[in-house]
Amino acid sequence: MTSTAVVLPTLHWKPTAEAILIPVGAVVAALVLFGLFCLIQGAPPLEVFAAIYKAAFGSGYSLQNTLVRASPLMLTALCTALPARLGLVVIGNEGALVVGGAAAAAAGLAVASASFTIVITVMALAGFVAGGLWIALVALLHSRRGVNETIASLLLNYIAIALLNHLVNGPMRDPESLNKPSSRAIPDDRMIPLIGDTNIHYGLFFGIVACLVVWFLMEHTPFGFSVRTVGGNIRAARLAGLPVARITLITCFLAGAFAGLAGMIEVAAVHGRANESLAVGYGYAGILVAFVARHRGLPILLVATLLGGILASGGILQRQFKLPDATILVFQGLVFVMILFSDSLYGRFDIFKDKPRTA
Amino acid sequence: MNTDASSIGAWGVLIGILAGALRGGTPFLLVSLGECLTEKSGKINLGLEGALLLGAMSAYGASYATGNPWVGVAAAALAGALHGALHAFLVSRPKVNDIAAGIAMLIFGSGLAFYLGKPFIQPSAPQLPGLPLGFWSSLPQLNAALLLSPLFLIGIAIAFLMRHVFCATRWGLQIRAVGDAPAAARALGISIHGTRTLCIIVGAALAGLGGAHLSLFYPGAWTEAISSGQGLMAVALVIFARWNPVHCLYASLLFGGAQAVGPSLQAVGISTGYYLWNASPYVLTLVVMILTCSPRRTLSGAPGALGSSS
Which residue of A120, A143, A268, B6 lies most exposed, with the fewest beta carbons within 10 A? Predict the structure, then answer.
């Protein structure tokens, strides 16, 4: 018996559901594994989860704490997310943050006597450009010399931290900073202020705006389209006449610039000076955020906030359950491993497939 | 004519660099051999830093618990192998990026090492005995520099053994076939998945041994800052050594020496640029990569299928 197959219009909600449910499922699986881990260590998992939730989002105070930690994560995540759209794995987030912070501190101190607006603008520009050039160097090495971008950006992290240590122990050192060598301090009235009477500083807006800008740039502009084309099929992009090297350079500059801005905010809103507190791992956590958010601007906002909350709960776990601070690192690692594992599950569940149905 | 003090001072720098090459180079050697084996089979393992840290912690913990440092060495290899097994499973899945998996395993491994290693930060564990090759000299600095780690000697042996395996044995040919031309290897009936899994696991076990050297010989204690990224730099070092195990040995000595320049200069009173010297191994790696890489051709010696998803 023959029947003519009529392909009905496909339902588009299914791929979307897959794109949301698989990562969510991976995070849930990581939570379960982490719960088992806590159980083995003698901490009741449900109480641990409740404590993390309470410390991260349970009260106005803890929410503020979470958002303060989320804002650098939003920016450093972009440092991995933008080049990832080109098909490059850049992990120079920490280095770009450190370089941006150091440059912002140097520039801010140089113009410290100017007005508030000038100081903040100069610092932001310095952080933006320094971080941008740092990762643009990776792009340059990649397209000119074929140097692997992942390893180059990783090496630049170590070089950036050595540079920072050199600066705050030498040329930029404040002689009064004895225990923790630091640069001189930015005057208090030239720092990024807090919002109202909260503990959140205006730096949070930098992160939110940056993610929105990246989302718009990547999904709704010709430039974003060309970036995605290069990432999708570099030979096709070349054949279509796209200037691949220039697109790579601009994207990597932007990526590093956002991480540099994160460093500037840490200096101008949190520490008030440049010192080794800049390199506390926001860069490496940003890599995780980018991968969990699948390198998209809007999910980065959400994932950065979640991870900010988890980071903020580290202290509670230590005090309440006697779990060491590395617990949070174990948890991050589990989430990362599960998210990657879940990458192999796309297209494996029939329930998410739009099957051409016959009528 | 130099006075005695100043001539020893200048020699002190050289001896310090020699000591750095021998002691500080050993973790580089073992990790880069592990990475070399892994990459020969066509996969990159950026997570060896995690295996190294896990190995360092396990070695110290096992040595402390049993009182026998060699049990610690075995524990380090086992911990590294387990870390490698998880990595191998992860990258054997379709659509999983090698590099991203490496970073994930790096975070997971170091988190686990720091977590489980908390109780071992204070107590002191029995250390590995050194081989005193400096017995002929009366200079204490030279004695200390030439006190060789047993793991260094094991590493040298493994380097030459690995070259022999790659060049002259059936196993080596199999690994190279899988790394160079997986399709051809599959046609010959070689299990790509099995070969790669085994290479990744053994490679990570070697990285674990590198960790054992850190915590049981030099610097000889377990702290969270024990590794300065040797596991990550191994990837660059293998490129530098052109995937040749014996060249990994020379490269490791060079990197270990470069790492010791800053501290050795500081020891004789030259502290200018101390922090910049700390960056020298990384700058060296970057310069080497800039000089040896080329956008137009693949590197000579590079496994053909390296990093491709197949």
Answer: B6
